[in-house]
């Protein structure tokens, strides 16, 4: 008698993960300080696991009721944020996978609403007339605020030939706004207070910036005082090493200058002296054995100059191939001319 053999098998059907949009959260809106819960439900076989990450790769702030810990990711269908802040605002991704490709994800946007706040870098700005002046206000608010500028009369300022109004937005949802007001060619009528205003559905805030006049800096150049006496060397055929002597004028106006050798008023015209007829009186001694000369003018001031002659090199310092001569002219006391060995 023949027998029958039965064999039973199990067929397991694997299904890739699929996110159930009806059971999952859409975009979530919460007020700062409240609780926000993000939910992501996925179907598939085997049952998919859910991983949460932030789209901008920032940390997820997870709390257990006592401490808050930053995490790169979070496992579970629900992401609970019991005390949301503006830093939690942004896009979150829930990723579903069950080892059956492909894995799927859903993007959920968390919006956190809060009262506007304003930060002013400079509340007092000093500037001279005739230049462009820029005022700045930095605003944070969600929902996105309405912003504008007002002058001291409460008039709203718009971009024109006189003003330039601009703003830039940053951070998720554009909740950070950088306001700028540029006043072109500052005049006396532009001096005074200006107000930046920001408002949204949560509240309104404003801050004031004051412009005041500051004159341009001026520089005064002190009068130039002479620090040395200029002398002009006259090249002659004579081997005399003495340069012409030019006394420093003692007054701004020209006066009569006389030269005297010892007690004798002079010098007599002609050699061994040469004198100039210009504004500065110059006496050049062409030859002679030396002596002293002085100059005087109607201002009754005078200076003395002593001139010493040196013998030829072969007589003065035998055995040396050169001589060094120094002429020192002093207004207040005579200094002799001497030769160095």
From TrEMBL:
Keywords: Cell membrane, Disulfide bond, Glycoprotein, Immunoglobulin domain, Membrane, Repeat, Signal, Transmembrane, Transmembrane helix. GO terms for cellular component: neuron projection; plasma membrane. The keyword Transmembrane applies. It comes from the Eukaryota. Signal peptide: none annotated. Residues 17-105, 116-212 form the Ig-like domain. Its main location: membrane. Pfam families: I-set, Ig_3. It is found in: Cell membrane. The chain crosses the membrane at residues 319-340. InterPro entries: Ig-like_dom (IPR007110), Ig-like_dom_sf (IPR036179), Ig-like_fold (IPR013783), Ig_I-set (IPR013098), Ig_sub (IPR003599), Ig_sub2 (IPR003598), Neural/epithelial_adhesion (IPR051170). This is Ig-like domain-containing protein. It comes from Petrolisthes cinctipes.
């Amino acid at each position: 008698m023949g027998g029958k053999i039965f064999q039973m098998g199990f067929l397991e059907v694997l299904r890739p993960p699929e996110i159930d949009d009806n059971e999952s959260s859409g975009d979530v809106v919460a007020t700062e300080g409240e609780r926000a819960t993000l939910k992501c439900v996925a179907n598939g076989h085997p049952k998919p696991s859910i991983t949460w990450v932030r789209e901008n790769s920032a940390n997820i702030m997870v709390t257990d009721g006592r401490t808050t810990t930053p995490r790169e990711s979070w496992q579970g269908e629900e992401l609970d944020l019991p005390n949301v802040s503006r830093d939690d605002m942004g896009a979150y991704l829930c990723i579903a996978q069950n080892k059956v490709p492909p894995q799927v994800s859903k993007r959920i946007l968390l919006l956190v609403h809060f009262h506007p706040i304003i930060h002013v870098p400079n509340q007092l700005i000093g500037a001279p007339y005739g230049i462009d002046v820029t005022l700045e206000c930095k605003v944070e608010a969600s929902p996105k605020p309405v912003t504008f500028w007002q002058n001291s009369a409460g008039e709203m300022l718009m971009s024109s030939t006189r003003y330039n109004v601009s703003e830039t937005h940053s951070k998720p949802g554009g909740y950070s706004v950088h306001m700028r007001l540029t006043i072109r060619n500052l005049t006396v009528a532009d001096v005074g207070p200006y107000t930046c205003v920001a408002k949204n559905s949560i509240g309104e805030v404003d801050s004031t910036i004051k412009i005041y006049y500051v004159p341009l800096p001026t520089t005064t150049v002190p009068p130039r005082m002479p620090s040395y006496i200029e002398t002009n060397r006259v090249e002659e055929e004579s081997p005399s090493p003495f340069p012409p002597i030019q006394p420093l004028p003692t007054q701004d106006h020209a006066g009569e200058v006389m030269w005297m050798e010892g007690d004798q008023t002079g010098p007599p015209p002609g050699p061994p002296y040469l004198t100039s007829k210009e504004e500065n009186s110059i006496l050049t001694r062409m030859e002679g054995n030396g002596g002293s000369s002085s100059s005087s003018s109607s201002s009754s001031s005078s200076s003395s100059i002593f001139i010493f002659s040196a013998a030829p090199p072969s007589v003065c310092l035998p055995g040396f191939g050169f001589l060094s001569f120094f002429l020192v002219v002093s207004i207040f006391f005579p200094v002799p001319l001497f030769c160095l060995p």
